[in-house]
Amino acid sequence: MEFLNKIELRGVVGRGDVNSYNNSRVCNFSVVTERSTRDSDGNPVVETTWFNCSVWDSLDNPRFPLEKVVKGAWVEVTGRLRLRRYTTTENEYRYSMDVLAWDVKVLSKEGHDPHMQPQRD
């Protein structure tokens, strides 16, 4: 049996930054997802979850439209989860669960209402 660490997200970009390093570029961005349920009284409840994501790409042969990963854009992200530990300036340990993406699809242009369904270009 093989190990499996895979996550698939569809949501709206909260922020996105593309930077270049050597012969590569990286896009660090956040994605928000929502899940609608009802509480015990039947009232609607929306559960919002934010994910920190990053994807690496080549400058010579780009595979992803990283410049389109901007605030408000609908995206589909496939990747793996990574638990990262870091130390604050007060020497306290903190943890962050990050998504290391291997596939990013931009489903719509920026500026769409996050409550609308994504539209493929």
Describe the overall structure.
This protein has about 120 residues and is mostly beta strands. The protein is about 0% helix and about 60% strand. It has one domain: OB fold (Dihydrolipoamide Acetyltransferase, E2P) (Beta Barrel), CATH 2.40.50. The protein contains no helices and five strands. The chain has a five-stranded mixed beta barrel. Strand 1 (about 5-20) and strand 2 form a beta hairpin. The model has no long low-confidence stretch (mean pLDDT about 85).
SSE layout and pairing:
Blueprint: E1 7-21, E2 24-38, E3 44-58, E4 74-87, E5 93-106
Parallel strand pairs: 3-5
Antiparallel strand pairs: 1-2, 1-4, 2-3, 4-5
Number of domains: 1
What is the CATH architecture annotation? Beta Barrel
Described by its quaternary structure, the protein is single chain
Through-space gap between termini: 39 Å
Strand residue content: over 45%
Fill in the keyword field for this structure:
mainly beta; OB fold (Dihydrolipoamide Acetyltransferase, E2P); five-stranded mixed β-barrel; 5 strands; about 120 residues
Write a brief caption for the model:
By secondary structure, this protein is mostly beta strands.
